[in-house]
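Hi,

Apologies if this is the wrong queue. I'm a grad student, and the batch job for NADP-dependent oxidoreductase from Costertonia aggregata produced an output file that my downstream script rejects. I'm not sure whether the problem is my script or the file. Here is the sequence I used:
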Amino acid sequence: MRGKMRQWVMAKRPKGLVKPSDFLLQEVPVPTIRTGEVLVKTLYLGVAPIMLRYMTNETSFEKPMNIGDVMIGRGVGRVVESKCTKFKVGDLLQTKLGWREYGVIKDEPYFMTYKMSTTDLSPSYGVGALGMNGFTSVIGMQDICEVKKGETVLVSGAAGSVGSMAGFVAKALGCGTLVGIAGGTGKCTLLTESLGYDHAIDYKAQGMCKKFRHLFP
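Support response: The file is valid. Your script probably expects a header line. Output copied below for reference.
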Protein backbone atom coordinates (compact mmCIF):
# COMPACT_ATOMS: atom_id res chain seq x y z
CA MET A 1 0.00 0.00 0.00
CA ARG A 2 1.30 3.47 -0.91
CA GLY A 3 1.93 5.95 1.86
CA LYS A 4 0.40 9.32 2.62
CA MET A 5 1.53 12.81 1.68
CA ARG A 6 0.58 16.36 2.63
CA GLN A 7 -0.67 19.04 0.28
CA TRP A 8 -1.98 22.59 0.56
CA VAL A 9 -5.21 23.41 -1.25
CA MET A 10 -7.11 26.67 -1.73
CA ALA A 11 -9.86 26.80 0.90
CA LYS A 12 -11.34 30.12 -0.26
CA ARG A 13 -10.52 33.01 -2.53
CA PRO A 14 -8.51 35.77 -0.84
CA LYS A 15 -10.07 39.14 -0.17
CA GLY A 16 -7.22 41.60 -0.02
CA LEU A 17 -4.00 40.12 1.36
CA VAL A 18 -3.64 36.35 1.56
CA LYS A 19 -4.37 34.84 5.00
CA PRO A 20 -3.58 31.39 6.46
CA SER A 21 -7.31 30.66 6.50
CA ASP A 22 -7.33 30.85 2.68
CA PHE A 23 -5.50 27.49 2.65
CA LEU A 24 -6.18 24.01 3.95
CA LEU A 25 -3.56 21.36 4.72
CA GLN A 26 -4.67 17.88 3.68
CA GLU A 27 -3.26 14.38 4.04
CA VAL A 28 -3.89 12.24 0.95
CA PRO A 29 -2.45 9.06 -0.61
CA VAL A 30 0.72 9.38 -2.66
CA PRO A 31 -0.51 9.23 -6.28
CA THR A 32 0.12 6.34 -8.65
CA ILE A 33 1.71 7.26 -11.98
CA ARG A 34 0.69 6.09 -15.43
CA THR A 35 2.57 5.70 -18.70
CA GLY A 36 4.30 8.95 -19.66
CA GLU A 37 4.41 10.27 -16.09
CA VAL A 38 6.97 10.60 -13.30
CA LEU A 39 6.54 10.91 -9.54
CA VAL A 40 8.65 13.71 -8.11
CA LYS A 41 9.48 14.16 -4.41
CA THR A 42 9.40 17.86 -3.60
CA LEU A 43 12.59 19.36 -2.19
CA TYR A 44 11.93 23.10 -2.51
CA LEU A 45 8.87 25.19 -3.38
CA GLY A 46 8.84 28.75 -4.65
CA VAL A 47 6.46 31.43 -3.35
CA ALA A 48 5.77 34.51 -5.47
CA PRO A 49 3.31 37.44 -5.51
CA ILE A 50 1.80 36.15 -8.77
CA MET A 51 0.24 33.29 -6.78
CA LEU A 52 -2.36 35.70 -5.41
CA ARG A 53 -3.52 36.26 -8.98
CA TYR A 54 -3.63 32.49 -9.53
CA MET A 55 -6.06 32.26 -6.61
CA THR A 56 -8.28 35.03 -7.96
CA ASN A 57 -8.07 33.79 -11.57
CA GLU A 58 -6.58 37.06 -12.83
CA THR A 59 -4.02 35.58 -15.21
CA SER A 60 -4.35 34.55 -18.83
CA PHE A 61 -1.37 32.18 -18.77
CA GLU A 62 -2.41 29.82 -15.95
CA LYS A 63 -5.38 27.48 -15.74
CA PRO A 64 -8.26 28.68 -13.50
CA MET A 65 -8.15 27.58 -9.86
CA ASN A 66 -11.22 26.21 -8.10
CA ILE A 67 -11.83 25.88 -4.37
CA GLY A 68 -10.17 22.66 -3.22
CA ASP A 69 -7.48 22.69 -5.91
CA VAL A 70 -3.84 22.14 -4.95
CA MET A 71 -2.01 25.47 -4.90
CA ILE A 72 -0.23 26.08 -8.19
CA GLY A 73 3.48 26.74 -7.92
CA ARG A 74 6.89 25.81 -9.22
CA GLY A 75 9.46 23.88 -7.29
CA VAL A 76 12.48 21.61 -7.39
CA GLY A 77 12.20 17.89 -6.78
CA ARG A 78 13.79 14.53 -7.48
CA VAL A 79 12.24 11.77 -9.59
CA VAL A 80 11.46 8.72 -7.42
CA GLU A 81 9.38 6.75 -9.95
CA SER A 82 9.31 7.01 -13.73
CA LYS A 83 7.20 5.70 -16.58
CA CYS A 84 8.50 8.38 -18.93
CA THR A 85 11.40 7.88 -21.33
CA LYS A 86 12.62 11.47 -20.96
CA PHE A 87 13.18 11.45 -17.18
CA LYS A 88 14.70 8.72 -15.04
CA VAL A 89 14.77 7.99 -11.32
CA GLY A 90 17.23 10.32 -9.60
CA ASP A 91 16.82 13.23 -12.04
CA LEU A 92 16.55 16.65 -10.42
CA LEU A 93 13.74 18.65 -12.01
CA GLN A 94 12.53 22.24 -11.88
CA THR A 95 8.82 22.14 -12.75
CA LYS A 96 5.22 22.87 -11.74
CA LEU A 97 4.95 20.66 -8.69
CA GLY A 98 2.20 22.45 -6.80
CA TRP A 99 2.24 22.78 -3.02
CA ARG A 100 2.55 19.10 -2.15
CA GLU A 101 5.14 16.59 -1.04
CA TYR A 102 4.91 14.51 -4.22
CA GLY A 103 3.89 15.71 -7.66
CA VAL A 104 2.93 13.81 -10.82
CA ILE A 105 4.63 15.39 -13.82
CA LYS A 106 4.09 14.74 -17.52
CA ASP A 107 6.39 15.59 -20.40
CA GLU A 108 4.02 18.31 -21.61
CA PRO A 109 4.53 22.05 -22.30
CA TYR A 110 2.22 23.06 -19.43
CA PHE A 111 4.69 21.82 -16.80
CA MET A 112 7.66 23.71 -18.34
CA THR A 113 10.01 21.10 -16.87
CA TYR A 114 13.78 21.57 -16.88
CA LYS A 115 16.34 18.99 -15.84
CA MET A 116 18.88 20.51 -13.46
CA SER A 117 22.55 19.57 -13.71
CA THR A 118 24.39 18.30 -10.65
CA THR A 119 26.67 21.06 -9.36
CA ASP A 120 28.04 22.28 -6.05
CA LEU A 121 25.11 24.72 -5.86
CA SER A 122 22.12 23.95 -3.67
CA PRO A 123 19.05 22.72 -5.60
CA SER A 124 17.20 25.61 -3.92
CA TYR A 125 18.68 27.88 -6.59
CA GLY A 126 16.13 26.27 -8.90
CA VAL A 127 13.38 28.37 -7.30
CA GLY A 128 15.59 31.47 -7.27
CA ALA A 129 18.41 32.59 -9.53
CA LEU A 130 18.19 29.46 -11.69
CA GLY A 131 14.39 29.51 -11.78
CA MET A 132 11.92 31.28 -14.05
CA ASN A 133 12.95 34.73 -12.80
CA GLY A 134 16.54 34.01 -13.80
CA PHE A 135 15.49 32.69 -17.22
CA THR A 136 13.31 35.76 -17.77
CA SER A 137 16.16 38.10 -16.85
CA VAL A 138 18.64 36.48 -19.22
CA ILE A 139 16.20 36.39 -22.13
CA GLY A 140 15.13 39.97 -21.49
CA MET A 141 18.60 41.48 -21.23
CA GLN A 142 20.57 39.28 -23.62
CA ASP A 143 18.10 38.29 -26.33
CA ILE A 144 15.52 41.10 -26.37
CA CYS A 145 17.35 44.21 -25.11
CA GLU A 146 20.69 43.00 -26.50
CA VAL A 147 22.62 44.99 -23.90
CA LYS A 148 25.97 46.19 -25.19
CA LYS A 149 29.14 47.07 -23.32
CA GLY A 150 29.10 50.60 -21.93
CA GLU A 151 25.36 51.21 -22.41
CA THR A 152 23.11 52.72 -19.74
CA VAL A 153 20.36 50.31 -18.72
CA LEU A 154 17.10 51.17 -16.95
CA VAL A 155 15.15 48.45 -15.11
CA SER A 156 11.61 48.98 -13.82
CA GLY A 157 10.51 46.92 -10.82
CA ALA A 158 14.20 46.55 -10.06
CA ALA A 159 13.78 45.30 -6.49
CA GLY A 160 11.55 42.38 -7.51
CA SER A 161 12.59 38.81 -8.22
CA VAL A 162 13.06 39.43 -11.96
CA GLY A 163 14.34 43.00 -11.71
CA SER A 164 17.03 42.13 -9.19
CA MET A 165 18.32 39.34 -11.41
CA ALA A 166 18.07 41.55 -14.52
CA GLY A 167 20.51 43.96 -12.92
CA PHE A 168 23.11 41.25 -12.37
CA VAL A 169 22.68 40.02 -15.95
CA ALA A 170 23.04 43.55 -17.37
CA LYS A 171 26.27 44.05 -15.41
CA ALA A 172 27.58 40.69 -16.59
CA LEU A 173 26.91 41.77 -20.18
CA GLY A 174 29.04 44.87 -19.59
CA CYS A 175 26.54 47.70 -19.20
CA GLY A 176 28.18 50.96 -18.17
CA THR A 177 25.54 52.44 -15.88
CA LEU A 178 22.70 50.51 -14.26
CA VAL A 179 19.63 52.43 -13.09
CA GLY A 180 16.72 50.84 -11.25
CA ILE A 181 13.19 52.02 -10.45
CA ALA A 182 11.61 50.94 -7.17
CA GLY A 183 9.09 52.21 -4.63
CA GLY A 184 10.34 53.49 -1.30
CA THR A 185 13.63 54.41 0.36
CA GLY A 186 14.26 50.89 1.63
CA LYS A 187 14.01 49.26 -1.78
CA CYS A 188 16.13 51.95 -3.42
CA THR A 189 18.83 51.50 -0.79
CA LEU A 190 18.73 47.76 -1.43
CA LEU A 191 19.34 48.39 -5.14
CA THR A 192 22.46 50.48 -4.69
CA GLU A 193 23.95 48.77 -1.63
CA SER A 194 23.24 45.10 -2.31
CA LEU A 195 22.05 44.50 -5.87
CA GLY A 196 24.74 46.26 -7.89
CA TYR A 197 22.71 49.20 -9.20
CA ASP A 198 24.58 52.46 -9.76
CA HIS A 199 21.51 54.65 -9.27
CA ALA A 200 17.99 54.16 -7.93
CA ILE A 201 14.87 56.17 -8.76
CA ASP A 202 12.08 56.17 -6.18
CA TYR A 203 8.80 56.43 -8.07
CA LYS A 204 7.01 57.32 -4.84
CA ALA A 205 9.22 60.34 -4.14
CA GLN A 206 8.99 63.87 -5.46
CA GLY A 207 11.48 64.94 -8.09
CA MET A 208 11.39 61.67 -10.02
CA CYS A 209 11.21 63.41 -13.40
CA LYS A 210 14.13 65.65 -12.48
CA LYS A 211 16.25 62.62 -11.61
CA PHE A 212 15.31 60.98 -14.91
CA ARG A 213 16.46 64.04 -16.82
CA HIS A 214 19.73 64.07 -14.88
CA LEU A 215 20.50 60.39 -15.52
CA PHE A 216 19.19 60.36 -19.09
CA PRO A 217 19.99 63.81 -20.56
